[in-house]
Amino acid sequence: MKRPAGQHPGSIVIVGCGRLGAMLASRLSRSGSRVVVIDHDSGAFALLEAGFSGFRVTGDAVEHDVLREAGLAEAACLLAVTEKDTLNLMVAQVAKTIFAVPQVIARVYDPTFEALYRKLGIHTISPTSLTAREFLRVIEQESGRP
Amino acid sequence: MKRPAGQHPGSIVIVGCGRLGAMLASRLSRSGSRVVVIDHDSGAFALLEAGFSGFRVTGDAVEHDVLREAGLAEAACLLAVTEKDTLNLMVAQVAKTIFAVPQVIARVYDPTFEALYRKLGIHTISPTSLTAREFLRVIEQESGRP
User: Fold this and answer.
1) A20 vs B contacts (CB less than 8 Å)
2) How remote is the C-alpha of A15 from its chain's centroid?
3) What angle (nearest 5°) sits at the alpha carbon of residue B130, between those of residues B70 and B22?
4) Closest by alpha carbon to B89, among B71, B68, B107?
5) CA B101, CA B121: separation in Å to the nearest integer?
6) Counting beta carbons within 10 angstroms of the beta carbon of residue B141, is it exposed (0 to 12), middle (13 to 18) or buried (19 or more)?
7) Whether pLDDT at B117 is above 80
8) Candidate from B79, B128, B143 with C-beta closest to A23
9) A1: which of A24, A56, B51, B121 lies 20 to 30 Å off by Cα?
10) How many CB atoms lie within 10 A of CB B90?
11) In sequence order, what DSSP letters do the residues of A116-140 get, joined into one string?
């Protein structure tokens, strides 16, 4: 495990290094942000682009020690982007309530509880809603429908 | 199986009635489009909203007979939105090359082959890219970064 020692304030912690997590980690790191990415499977870090200069933490993000090791207590932002809605929302709540992270954003496939989480200070992003909107835009653009 | 007999030109055929397929089918149907939705699992149709007035076809969309039964030969548009990239791209290619459907759009999680498919006349939409863009927008908007 690579230890992200000495996190300065303002880092972005990303939970989940799947396709989305790796894409965000790579882009944010490239644009100068200090990035820490957590995944329970160290093999997932292979998705990061070659020049990725952030930190990698292998571990289960439901464990507070793992989040602490990733420097969450001093982070400016937490992005919860594993494949599991429940895990993303759990990590987001912990980040907001226990670690008092200023900005918390979670990917949530099921947008049902969006309003509830917004009340808790957690911004949720639903790929399903975004994708549906894009489909409707393309259909309308290309054919004048619906 | 409910037969969508007598499809008139201009219908929208949707392959895959998961969260995205059901959302698109419901919205397009509500806004007056003639919609046919195909899924291999008839239980998936439970995701359609109560007032859905389109047609449901239970079957495997890799079988041309199933696509024919759904009226694909006369359709104006095919949306391939199952959970599987390979299946979506296969159905999209069949729709374009064999059924000559004017507008073909596929959900593809892996955007690697986007350019290739665009050359074949297939518009691909990547939830990963869309979602990453939205995350970056929200991060920037709320904190002035990256």
Assistant:
1) 128, 131-132, 135
2) 5
3) 30
4) B107
5) 10
6) exposed
7) yes
8) B128
9) A24
10) 16
11) HHHHTTEEEE-HHHHHHHHHHHHHH
Q: Are A29 and A96 in contact (CB under 8 A)?
A: no
pLDDT per residue over A83-120, tens digit each?
A: 999 999 999 999 999 999 999 999 998 878 788 888 88
Q: What is the CATH number of domain B5-143?
A: 3.40.50.720
Rounded distance between C-alpha atoms, residue A122 and residue B84, angstroms? 30
Q: Do residue A139 and residue B32 have CB atoms under 8 angstroms apart?
A: no
User: Which residues are paired to A36 by β-bridges?
Assistant: A13, A55
Q: What ipTM was estimated for this complex?
A: 0.90
User: How do residues A18-66 score in pLDDT, each as one tens digit?
Assistant: 999 999 999 999 999 999 999 999 999 999 999 899 999 999 999 999 9
What global pTM score does this model have?
A: 0.84
Q: Number of Cβ pairs closer than 8 Å across A and B?
A: 106
Residues 58-117 of A with CB under 8 A from B: 76-77, 79, 81, 102-103, 105, 107, 109-110
Q: Which residue on chain A is closest to B14 by alpha carbon?
A: A135
Q: Give residue for tokens 């020049």.
A: A51
Q: Which residue of B has its CA nearest to A19?
A: B128
A28 touches chain B (CB under 8 A): yes
